[in-house]
Design goal:
- It comes from Vibrio ponticus.
- Pfam families: DNA_alkylation.
- InterPro entries: ARM-type_fold (IPR016024), DNA_alkylation (IPR014825).
- By secondary structure, this protein is mainly alpha-helical.
- The protein has 15 helices and no strands.
- Helix 12 packs across helix 13.
């Protein structure tokens, strides 16, 4: 049986799509079917992922991005071409953006920081979800301490002109994560940019700072 048929069979057993299911339920299906794949070679797995993504079904997307992450030990620079094509073709909202970029795509960037200039180009993309991805993809490498070749503040600079609230929340989230690891860098940046930064992004960015610092920064606005 083809992988997508196995996935659909498991979805049917959950009553999906006629009945609501949780992301954790879909991830369990994903793990179960992945174990049954005849080939775990990255080319074969990513081909199956694309078939799932082409359905434009939320649950199939969750499975596809999970499988892509499961073959992370086989990533190469060429994997970027595949992932970027998926980003431009299939990512339409913040949910898919965050799922893909905080796992599979984020891991690829963590493995190869030299890909950052290509990520930076996404800030010019007409799709807000792709613009958001330019910030969100940095979250995984930052959290893993594998971000020495990345420039999160440059991404924030380039996205600051966006009036889309989900883009603002995206780079605000990135700055919030960065503040856990390099708080002074973020504090200095926010002091410098507080007049230009939209309130939505600013509030996200300060969320994890200590109460005193947060109050001081809020008083600037």
């Amino acid at each position: 049986m083809k992988p997508i048929s196995l996935v659909r069979q498991q979805f049917d057993s959950l009553g999906y799509p006629n009945h609501p299911v949780t992301t954790s339920q879909i991830r369990r299906v994903s793990a179960q079917v992945f174990r049954q794949l005849e080939s775990k070679d990255i080319e074969s797995v990513l081909e199956q992922c694309e078939i799932l993504l082409a359905t434009q079904d939320w649950a199939c997307g969750v499975v596809a991005y999970d499988w892509a992450f499961r073959v992370r030990k086989q990533y190469t620079e060429a994997t970027f071409e595949v992932f970027e094509r998926w980003l431009f073709t299939y990512i339409k909202g913040w949910g898919d953006c965050d799922d893909f970029c905080t796992h599979a795509f984020g891991e690829l960037l963590a493995q190869n920081n030299a890909l950052f200039p290509r990520v930076l180009q996404w800030v010019e993309h007409p799709n807000f979800a792709v613009q958001r991805s330019a910030a969100v993809i940095l979250i995984y490498p930052i959290n893993k301490g594998r971000d020495s070749g990345l420039k999160p503040l440059l991404v924030a600079d380039k996205l600051m002109g966006s009036d889309h609230h989900l883009v603002q929340k995206g780079y605000g989230w990135m700055l919030k994560v960065l503040s856990r690891h390099q708080p002074q860098m973020v504090i200095d940046y926010l002091r410098l940019k507080h007049k230009q930064m939209p309130r939505t992004a600013f509030r996200y960015a300060i969320e994890k700072l200590d109460k005193t610092t947060k109050s001081q920064l809020m008083s600037l606005n």
